From TrEMBL:
Residues 111-539 form the Solute-binding protein family domain. SUPFAM superfamilies: Periplasmic binding protein-like II. This is ABC transporter substrate-binding protein. One of its GO terms (cellular component) is periplasmic space. Belongs to the bacterial solute-binding protein 5 family. GO terms for molecular function: peptide transmembrane transporter activity. Coiled coil: none annotated. Keywords: Signal, Transport. It comes from the Archaea. InterPro entries: Peptide/Ni-bd, SBP_5, SBP_5_dom. One of its GO terms (biological process) is peptide transport. Residues 38-62 are annotated as: Disordered. The keyword Calcium does not apply. The lineage of its organism: Archaea, Methanobacteriati, Methanobacteriota, Stenosarchaea group, Halobacteria. It comes from Haloarcula rubra.
């Protein structure tokens, strides 16, 4: 998920793992005009790119210089990445830990810690570099660390560790076999062929923990101990594994890292000259600035290196000589999330009701006016720029535009849905079983004015076209994650399964701390390169299914079949079926695919206006 105002995804850390994580918790960066940084989450702090003494030394090697200052709209949840799935937390950790590999602009694997290889698309051999070192006395990173972590934590019985992405490591309910080959090599043996596996976020950007830390908690399945481990929560194990070293975290204020003088990749002989002395900033700080106008003013005044720009401010910053503006395709879809769990509105479990809500909202008006043309209407779980997008099949489900927008299509679907219920219309107003007018809650991000305005417009349209009152609440992205998205069964109540913090069990039992009905706080990753990765949103036991969706068609099965299909044209046909069913069922109300808009001080060299911009952000530098 992505935080609507947490972190800009323009220039993400090389792995972009948490951006491409399902729960880049929040909403699309630019969708809400978020904050911005050139990193998987990123930050802002100190005096941006001023007073730089960069350049190259006598051997032609670029010298590090300056302080990178990024910004986030709300704070991270934790530095213990096992239990987080939001972009800001990922950004913080990602500055100190690279991950397995990155994917470049040509969709090629770029080895960071490791490189994958396969002969059949089913068994993948993962080979680690030989110069990866933990700190804290844990020695060299080895294949044993990985295999122990995967088997005992990611695939731990009943997900005892509460790992947020445990579902990635199972197929058809069974753990994916993982075997150590030697000190630096392990194999992953998939149950079926999956030619896109290296491009999926299963291992792309996956982080690791030393076996020496984990083995203190695995034997007794000590979840609390693992969550509270000081070495993990203070990033005391990161060694030479990332471009920066953790210095301090002032809650709700700033996160500070300094250049890692031991960074492993500078010793690599399989990377280009631009990597010889990375990173090229002396420090990288992420400042937490909740108020959107304050973030923009900091960018305008040169106090931060980069910041996300809301659509309504884009033209202004494009006219500034001191700021470069990057408008990039991005993978997060903005949608109305419906709470179908026991503490939400039960009618959201009906397909016609979910369709009615998106028929009530004029998507084209939102795209043209609120987003100033920096967004397109969305109808399913894939952006138009993806090679997997197929128009055919979803024409009749283009809710929210043309004849499928307005009172008539919205109310006809709602009336059909309530025929067998105690709900009824009294004139223009929908009345509930208790005889009172139906009023629902809608949560928006307190860090983004664009997101709040989106919520206000949705509320107005729903009341006008469906006769349902909507009360708007604003909360920080991290608060929404903790109190509204995360869910679990009541104390003492057992559930037959748990998929992690954001899907603690069946929707009739596992609920969030606070009740809610609708939300636009979080943006969901469509995975344009590997669409099957988004299946986790639509499986009953998906690890990001915090809203309690239960598919009525064979969506999960179609995803699985597409994932294992080698022939590209057949795969495209299967994805077309997936997207058609998603457009029909509307697991959440698809609204928009916004562009990512980020401004950076013009001294910064490196970003591009491409979808993959940021994969090599360690090589960015300030022009002297």
């Amino acid at each position: 998920m992505s935080n609507e105002s947490d972190v800009s995804r323009t220039l993400s850390t090389p792995t972009r793992r948490d951006i491409l994580r399902t729960l880049g918790i929040g909403a699309t960066a630019s969708a809400a005009g978020c904050n911005g940084l050139f990193g998987d989450g990123g930050g802002d702090t100190q005096p941006g790119a001023t007073e730089i003494e960069g350049g190259t030394d006598e051997t032609g090697v670029r010298r590090p210089a300056g302080e990178f200052a990024g910004v986030a709209g709300s704070d991270a949840n934790s530095l213990n990445w096992l239990f987080t799935n939001d972009t800001t937390s990922g950004a913080f950790v990602g500055l100190t830990l690279d991950g397995a590999w990155a994917v470049d602009e040509d969709q090629n694997v770029f080895p960071l810690w490791a490189e994958p290889s396969t002969e059949d698309g089913q068994t993948y051999r993962i080979t680690l570099r030989d110069n990866l070192r933990w700190s804290g006395g844990y020695g060299q990173m080895t294949a044993e660390d990985w295999v122990y972590m995967i088997r005992n934590v990611f695939q731990g019985e009943d997900n005892w560790a509460g790992y947020t992405n445990a579902g990635d490591w199972f197929r058809q309910g069974e753990p994916i076999p993982v075997e150590q080959i030697d000190d630096l090599t392990f194999e992953i043996r998939l149950p079926e062929v999956d030619p896109s596996f290296p491009l999926k976020p299963v291992l792309w950007g996956q982080r690791c923990l030393p076996k020496g830390i984990l083995e203190k908690y695995v034997p007794d399945k000590d979840t609390q101990g693992l969550q509270q481990d000081e070495e993990i929560n203070q990033l005391q194990y990161t060694g030479n594994l990332g471009p920066y070293t953790f210095e301090e975290w002032e809650r709700e204020s700033q996160y500070v890292t300094t250049r890692n003088e031991e960074y492993y990749i500078r010793e690599a002989d399989d990377v280009g000259e631009e990597w010889r002395n990375v990173p090229y900033f002396d420090s990288y700080t992420i400042r937490v600035i909740a108020e959107e106008s304050s973030r923009l003013n900091a960018l305008r005044e040169g106090e931060v290196t980069s910041a996300g720009i809301p659509p309504q401010n884009a033209r202004e910053f494009q006219d500034l000589e001191t700021v470069d503006v990057y408008v990039q395709p991005q993978p997060f879809v903005q949608a109305i999330k419906y709470n179908m769990r026991a503490n939400g509105w039960r009618l959201f479990r009906k397909i016609p009701v979910r369709q009615a809500f998106v028929c009530a909202v004029n998507k084209q008006t939102l795209a043209d006016n609120l987003y100033r043309g920096f967004a397109d209407p969305a109808f399913t779980m894939q952006p138009r720029f993806s090679k997997w997008y197929v128009e055919e099949g979803i024409e009749e489900y283009r809710f929210g535009v043309g004849d499928l927008y307005g009172r008539a299509p919205a109310r006809s679907r709602m009336r059909r849905a309530i025929e067998d219920t105690d709900y009824r219309y009294d004139g223009e107003t929908l009345i509930g079983p208790d005889g009172s007018a139906v009023t629902l809650s809608l949560y928006a991000s307190s860090a983004s004015r664009t997101n709040q305005t989106l919520a206000e417009l949705v509320a107005q349209e729903v009341e006008a076209n469906l006769g349902i009152r909507v009360g708007i609440e604003t909360v920080p992205g991290n608060t929404f994650q903790q109190k509204y998205a995360a869910n679990s069964p009541p104390s003492g109540k057992e559930v037959p399964w748990s998929a992690g913090a954001f899907n603690g069990g069946p929707r009739g039992v596992s609920v969030s701390q606070e009740p809610w009905d609708m939300s636009v706080v979080l943006g969901f990753n469509t995975y344009p390169r590997t669409p099957s990765s988004s299946a986790t949103f639509f499986r009953t036991r998906g690890n990001v299914n915090y809203y309690g969706y239960v598919p009525e068609s064979n969506i999960p099965e179609l995803y699985a079949e597409a994932s294992s299909t080698v022939d590209e044209e057949q795969r495209r046909e299967l994805f077309a079926e997936v997207f058609e069913q998603l457009a029909r069922e509307q697991p959440f109300g698809f609204l928009l695919m916004p562009s990512n808009i980020v401004g950076a001080q013009d001294e910064l060299v490196g970003p591009t206006e491409t979808f993959a911009s940021g994969w090599n952000s360690q090589t960015y530098y300030f022009e002297s």
